[in-house]
Amino acid sequence: MITVATNISWFLLSAAALICVTRLLRARTVANRIVALDLLLVILVSALAVYTAQTGDPSFLNVLVVVALLGFIGTALVAAFIERKGT
Amino acid sequence: MSEAIASVMLVTGSLLAFIAAVGLIRFHDVFSRMQAASKPATLGILLTLGGAALVIDRATAVAKLTLVIVLQFLTGPIGAHLIGRAVYRAGAEMELESGIDELAEYLASTEDEVRGV
Fold first, then answer.
1. Hey, which residues 45-104 in chain B have their CB within 8 Å of chain A?
2. Nearest CA-CA partner of B23 in B14, B34, B13
3. CB within 8 Å: A86 and B90
4. pLDDT by residue (tens digit) across B65-104?
5. What is the C-alpha to C-alpha distance for residues A82 and A85, in angstroms, rounded to an integer?
6. Are the C-beta atoms of B89 and B115 separated by less than 8 Å?
């Protein structure tokens, strides 16, 4: 049951990450890029949670906390950069 | 039973992340992309991390997952708001077919008083 669920989750998250990377490379402005990068970090957090559920190995949970915090700091920094320099 | 609930939560959360990514390519301006990326993704994080917390039965792991959920719910809207405000002030184009730009009307009515804040 849980194996099937995690496999479906891996598929969906991989497709989402692929779309995000495509957007990240093809976007024309910094603002579009940071939106795609933000979603990529959210997908990374979800993927780490799926890995934890699949293996029962809690060693990546610290990484999860750090990624969630650093993602916000990065977003705030780029927002300040956009506000000063323009899109 | 809790494993079945966890499976449904994991798949639904991943599906929401996928929907957010589809919104990223389907929308045409930064503002709608931003809301498409931030809202379903936040709910998706709640569901996937909640599913993982149901599967794993250690108190420290559940505490860490709860911490990440709380952090995401605090920082997600703030980050999206910061990006939206910065992009608006930097003068990004807004696609007005599907809505109205009320802030521009307000700014035009109050002249330059609030523009420099």
1. 45, 48-49, 51-52, 55-56, 58, 60-61, 64-65, 67-68, 71-72, 75-76, 78-79, 82-83, 85-87, 89-92
2. B34
3. yes
4. 999 999 989 988 898 898 888 888 887 677 777 677 777 7
5. 5
6. no
C-alpha B86/C-alpha B83 separation (Å) is 5
Q: Do residues B56 and A52 lie in contact, with contact meaning Cβ atoms separated by under 8 Å?
A: yes
DSSP letter string over A5-29?
Answer: HHHHHHHHHHHHHHHHHHHHHH-SS
**ipTM, two decimals:** 0.89
Q: Where are the alpha helices (DSSP H) in chain A?
A: 2-26, 30-55, 61-85
φ/ψ (deg, to 5) at B28: -115, -10
Predicted model pTM? 0.87
Measured CA to CA, the distance from residue A37 to residue A39 in angstroms comes to: 5
A6: closest CA among B42, B48, B17?
Answer: B48
